[in-house]
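Ticket #4471: structure export looks truncated?
Reporter: QA, pipeline team
Priority: medium

Steps to reproduce: submit the single chain below to the structure queue and open the exported record.
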Amino acid sequence: MRPEICDAIHKRRLLRFRYAPGLRVIEPYAYGANEAGHELLRGYQIEGESESRERGWKLFRVDEISELTTLDDEFAGPRLGYMRNDPSMTVIYCEI
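Actual output as written to the record:
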């Protein structure tokens, strides 16, 4: 478990990290794990690279995240479309 992710969620602070194909900036909303045991992060991408080249809701595997940094910038949240108790996660460590 990465406690800095929960800290950013509770404080509504942006996260920046490297996730293929490049750097991304997201608003973190939920952090947990799926039934296979993979840790997941649900967030709204506001900047950076993406294979889909679109901003919006994304689901990230935490083991594929590198260079994780909590930024000083805060976000208002929750955005339209946010759903508590994310169905992609069987265990939720923290969420907005």
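Status: closed, not a bug. The export was complete when the record was re-opened. Leaving a note from the reviewer for reference: The chain is about 10% helix and 50% strand.
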